[in-house]
Structures are given as C-alpha cells and as structure tokens.
Specification:
With about 325 residues, the protein is mainly beta. It has a single domain (about 1-315), classed as 7 Propeller (Methylamine Dehydrogenase, Chain H), CATH 2.130.10. It contains one helix and 31 strands. It has a five-stranded mixed β-sheet with strand order 1-28-27-26-25. Strands 2-31-30-29 form a four-stranded antiparallel β-sheet, with no helix packed on it. A four-stranded antiparallel β-sheet has the order 3-4-5-6, with no helix packed on it. A hairpin with a 4-residue loop joins strand 29 and strand 30 (about 300-305). It is globular.
Amino acid sequence: MKKYFLSVMLLVGLMSAGSVAPVQSIHIDGNAKDLVVRAPLVYIGTSHGKLQVYNFETKQFVKEISLPKIKDFMGDPIFAAAASVDYVDGRYLLLSDSGDKGYTDLWIHENNVTKKLLSAKDKMTLVKARFIDRDHILLGFLSNEAALLDVATKKLLYRVQLSESKFSDLAVNNDRSRAVFSCESGAVTVIDTHTGKIITELKGLNKDNVYKVDYQNGYVACAGQDRQATWYKVATGSGGAFAASFLIYATGLSPSARYVAYALDENNNITVYDRATRAKIALLQGQKSTLNAIVFVDEKTLISGSDDDTVLIWKLP
C-alpha cells in the first residue's frame, strides 16, 4: 500500500508541474561540446574548435579563442573540437583532438596567447580536463585514469588507475578539493584532487555506462545509459533514482543540491526534480538535439548545450 501511495504521489507531481520555455538563446559557432559557468559568464567549447565566452547579463560574446585545424585520415583540414574547456584566474583551458592516432592536445590561453601544454608526442588519450587551481589541471583519461598536471613543469604529480572500465565523465565539487569520475561499469569514484587518493566508490544504482556526472554540496548526480537517473550522498553512499524512457545523456545539480535536472526522454526535454521530495519542479522544453551539458547557475537558473548551435538559458518557476 505504501509503495502504491508513493507511485500515485509521484504521478500527481509529474502531471502538476508545468512546462518551461527558455528565456534566452545563445547562437554559437558549431555544436556545444562543453559548458562551464562563472556567472555572469558561460564558457562554451564548440565542435568548430572554439572557446566562446558569453555574458548572459549583457547578452554579448566577450571573448573567442580559436584552435588551429587538424588533418583527418585523408589529409584534409578539419576542426579540432574543443571537447573540454575551463577558466580560472585569467587562464583558459581547452582540450582537443590532435588528429594523430587518437591522442589529444591540451592548451592554455593567457594574455591573448594560446600555448600547447600537451601534444600527440605525449601520447595521452584525454577525454576531459578541469582546473583545480590556476597552476594545476585534473585530467580524465579514456582508460579511466585520473592525473594531476603541473602547468609550470608539464609534469604529472600523480596518475591513478580508477578501474578497468572505460572513462565517461568527471566533475569537481564546489571547492575543487574532490572530483567524481564515471565510467561504463555504472560505478562512480570520488577522489581527492590534490593527492589522487580514492575517497569512496558509489555504486548499485546504475548497471551500465554513466554518461555524465555532477558534484555539488556533497551530492553526485548520474546520467545513465540504463535509463536510470540517479543521485548519491557522498558521505553515506545512499541515494535514489528516477526512471526514464530513454538513454540519459546529461544531468546537473543546483549549488545546494536541492534540485537535480536530467535529460529523461528522446525529445531532449530536461526534467527538474526536488531531489529530497522527488517532486517534479518543471519540464524544460525547447532543446532540439542530444544534450551534452546541463549546468545550474544558481537555484533557479540553468544553462544547457547540445549537438547543435544553440545554447539555452532557463528560469525555474
């Protein structure tokens, strides 16, 4: 009876929450591959090898960094997609394909100069990178290894194998002291970003690849290939799940972790829940392509990017 009651209450919540349209559209050069927000700026990595910086208060682009083209297997020039981007204290970070055997290039842009930190000769297959501070970069390898790069020396301070499963995503917490790594097994690993020490492994809720993760205020959200939208409390390992009708490609947590957003259906809609009460807050409708990123600016504002040239901004009711 209790289970039936909870199911009915959840259904009522789904029916009562209204749909929300985007309040602002940002047209970018290429598809959105990665998003980072430092309000009022959003840093967008695009498939056309650019990092575009947009001020969503003034509704203007304020900076653009372009990467040189690479050559495909036929020798023709193509864009080197900016698959991962970040910013801290005057330094911009870009991660792109090198065009050589699947190895990657890592770039730093500062004082209007773009320099290559890592190249194909370093033989690193990186998928994602994030600043820990202006002098250190956390790296996620395709092989599901975590490493910390010293910007000045270009040396790895540690390199840790997290599991034998293929890497999917990483996210850092509010103060960048910890990070969560997801992989194709469904388990997610939390590490100390300064030492590489494994803090805990969160598992049991996803049985397949976790495409995306977010880490806010002691909670981790997971977007699963198994159609399970899940979350964990890091301190206890406990959590919960929301079932979806389609593969879940993106997720995001509000800064307090009260709200959690997932791409739950094949129409690229974003569903926002109150994590604790499981009440549905809103259905965000208007994204046209497969979602790559959902980022909360604050408790009521979200930004999303997908496999097209439009980044959307949303306001929750």
